[in-house]
Design brief:
Family: Belongs to the ComB family.
Keywords: Hydrolase, Magnesium
Protein name: 2-phosphosulfolactate phosphatase
Strand order of the largest sheet: 1-8-2-7-9-10-3-6-4-5
Mean pLDDT: 96
Strand content: 15-25%
GO biological process, one term: coenzyme M biosynthetic process
GO molecular function, one term: sulfopyruvate decarboxylase activity
Oligomer: single chain
Distance between the termini: 24 Å
Order of helices and strands: EEHEEEHHEHEHEHHHHHEE
Bound molecules: the ligand O=C(O)[C@H](CS(=O)(=O)O)OP(=O)(O)O, magnesium ion
């Protein structure tokens, strides 16, 4: 069974969960995993470690003393320097308004990172599990249609029975879902902040074949594929 587990409604999630934050935490994590193997997760807005690159935002704006915002296109534009410093032993640490907080609070046993950009690949990673929960991060406990659509797009690749939430999300993907995302409150906020490129980037279905799993005890997402 594929269920939708709304954390703001405190639904029970299965042990296999896919956390979905299309704009932008999941997309940023998957982008990072396309060229490094692990991303540390924090809910702090402080630089707590010396030898690290800090990536993050609050309400979309880059955190003042961080190196980069939660912007996958900004990350890609600086891929070489991030990769070089990672390979020299620096940690890559991410802190976002919703996605990293949901990861920290979710109690599922195996937590995968899902987005539109890696939809079929994260579905492939859980193909042997009968029961999987898709966990939209939403936006400060308000429904976020971009994450709901992201769950529907991933569910399309999961050939199992769907709960009614997932049926609705999959149905939505048959319409002009890109316009729905472009008109979402998440997207409008990002457009106002000059991150329009991130919105179109986040909608490129199956454009990145990286999949990460969150290791809660080590506070990090590691690439599994
Ligand atoms: O960084 C983002 O795009 C959002 C900001 S907001 O919460 O939509 O204002 O955070 P995320 O944790 O990636 O949803
Ligand atoms: Mg979001």
């Amino acid at each position: 069974m594929i269920t939708l587990c709304n954390k703001f409604a405190d639904h029970k999630c299965y042990d296999i969960a896919i956390v979905v934050d299309v704009l932008r935490a999941s997309t940023t994590i998957v982008t990072l995993l396309s060229f490094i193997d692990e991303v540390y997760i924090t809910t702090s807005t402080q630089r707590e470690e010396e030898n690290a690159i800090y990536i993050g935002e609050r309400k979309g704006r880059k955190i003042e003393n961080f190196d980069f915002g939660n912007s996958p296109t900004e990350i890609l534009a600086n891929k070489d320097i991030i990769k070089e410093r990672y390979e020299n032993g620096e940690k890559i640490i991410l802190s976002t308004t919703n996605g990293t907080r949901v990861l920290k609070n979710l109690n599922s046993k195996y937590i995968f990172i899902g987005a539109i950009v890696n939809a079929k690949y994260v579905a492939e990673a859980v193909k042997d599990f009968e029961n999987v929960s898709l966990v939209p991060c939403h936006r400060e406990n308000n429904f976020s249609i971009d994450d709901f659509i992201g769950c529907g797009i991933i569910a399309k690749y999961l050939n199992r029975e769907y709960d009614d939430f997932i049926k609705a999300a999959v149905e939505l993907t048959k319409y002009d879902w890109m316009s729905l995302i472009l008109e979402s409150s998440s997207a409008k906020n990002l457009k106002n902040l000059g991150y329009e490129k991130d919105i179109t980037f986040a909608m490129l279905e199956n454009s990145i074949d990286a999949v990460g799993i969150y290791k809660k005890e080590e506070n990090k997402v590691v690439r599994v594929k």
